[in-house]
Amino acid sequence: MDDLLAARLAKLEQLRARGIDPYPPRVRRTHTAAEARELAIAAGREPAADNGAVVVCGRVMARRDMGRATFVDLQDGSGRIQALLRQNILGPDAYELFRLVDLGDFVAIEGQPMLTRTGEPTVEAREWRMLCKALHAPPEKYHGLADPELRQRRRYLDLMANEETRRTFRIRTEMVRAIRRFLDERGFMEVETPILQEVTGGAAAKPFVTHYDALDEDRYLRISLELYLKRLIVGGFDKVYELGRNFRNEGLGWKYNPEFTMLETYEAYTDYHGVAEMAEALVSTVASEVLGTRTITFRGHEISLEPPFQRMTMYEALDRYAGIDAERLSTAEALRAELERRGLETDPRWGWGKLLDEAMSAYVEPNLIQPTFLLDYPVELSPLAKRKPDNPRLVERFELFIGGLEAGNAYTELNDPIDQRRRFEEQLAMRAAGDEEAEMLDEDFLLAIEHGMPPTGGFGMGIDRLAMLFTGHATIREVILFPQLRKVKS
């Protein structure tokens, strides 16, 4: 046991020896720190005796002993308030007992709100009470908690020490609320669909597998919300959305976390052009409501979220940023030769569509700083999207890029059950050849769309990535309260 822990445990026992419970079951709080600050400002430096006492509660984050007076800073979820404890007001015994309070402890202070001579909002204590004795000190006052892995592994310390972290997660919460408001006002219905699924699909990803003991069957954690939401369109709901967790058994990185939050929307009687108009309205509206501006800064770039966003096809983008003519390089062999000539590593198993996607990632996406819809993707990359009538090699799909980061994905949804079955079968062949990310064949979903699904536009957006953009964080771990980290080896 280290000396600091031993000292705190000794103070804990001293409190108990004096008949004081260091962990009482309840407290009566009348005002938050922020509310007490407002009352103190209103009261001024000489509050009337009948100004009404408040009870504020919080963690002791700073302490300044000055003989017969002690100043402490209390922090709660609303902010900080200073408290002033005087020996001549509390009495010698209560004032002396306060010496058993350490940084990190929770206390309740009852007293008068006022301003000090320096104008600091303060509660002048009449009584105090121990609420929770902390056995470890909070992070050091001036340097806070700087180590990124420690901050993410022990997020409670990060939140305790860093106002910027608390601000990040307040913005994330307000962002989700604003998204819900936007969709609710447009007539969408929020729904919930299964996380444990017999067959998982809707994305190219390797799933996590678990076992359902009651049924003695394996289940997959969902990788997408898509297939169940489209069942609801079949059932007669014209506008649905879900905000939920997805799980993909893949790598960690600055923009990847195996457990992440997605928004997916599905709307009958529209297509990917209609979805694009909704998506740019959603992003710009939410930015205005949450940030008070439609201009953000991400990775050193100033980005305008003012609609309309730029639109270009995948072919146009490859030509503009890489000088690659996708129509001329129309076979896998020709495109692979060109990419390898440029020094890009390829896999001999990749088809034309996958090679095109790799070229996009290497040469195009880093240039898409201002919001851009990239349109019309190869059919083999999009087994759930409707083909373009004038080019059956491509589908009606867009990906939304902001700050070089893919923030959203949308289709004109495939509602031809014959074509959908054929696409699933092609995906099965890819799985049989060793592609663990290829789609599974979902017979129940096929049966659903065989009953008829109207023309539909679907949209998916990563909530974590949008939070990165709104808060300016360059890594996804900074906007997830408890990101996945490698287990610490003992």
Domain unit count:
2
CATH architecture of the largest domain: 2-Layer Sandwich
What is the radius of gyration computed over CA atoms, rounded to a whole number of angstroms? 29 Å
Mean pLDDT value: 94
Strand content: 25-35%
Question: What structural category characterises the helix and strand content?
Answer: alpha+beta
First-residue to last-residue Cα separation? 18 Å
CATH topology of the largest domain: BirA Bifunctional Protein, domain 2
Q: Report low-confidence residues grouped into runs of 5 or more.
A: none
Which outline best applies?
Answer: elongated
Task: Let me know the CATH homologous superfamily of the largest domain.
Answer: Bira Bifunctional Protein, Domain 2
Helical residues, percent = 25-40%
Short recap of the structure:
This protein has 490 residues and is an alpha+beta fold.
Please provide a written account of the structure.
With 490 residues, the protein is an alpha+beta fold. The chain folds into two domains: 136 residues, Nucleic acid-binding proteins (OB fold (Dihydrolipoamide Acetyltransferase, E2P)); 260 residues, BirA Bifunctional Protein, domain 2 (2-Layer Sandwich). The protein is built from 15 helices and 19 strands. Strands 6, 10, 11, 14, 15, 16, 17, 18 and 19 form a nine-stranded mixed beta sheet that branches. Strands 1-2-3-5-4 form a five-stranded mixed barrel. Strand 4 and strand 5 form a beta hairpin. The longest helix has 23 residues. The radius of gyration is 29 Å and the shape is elongated. The two termini are 18 Å apart.
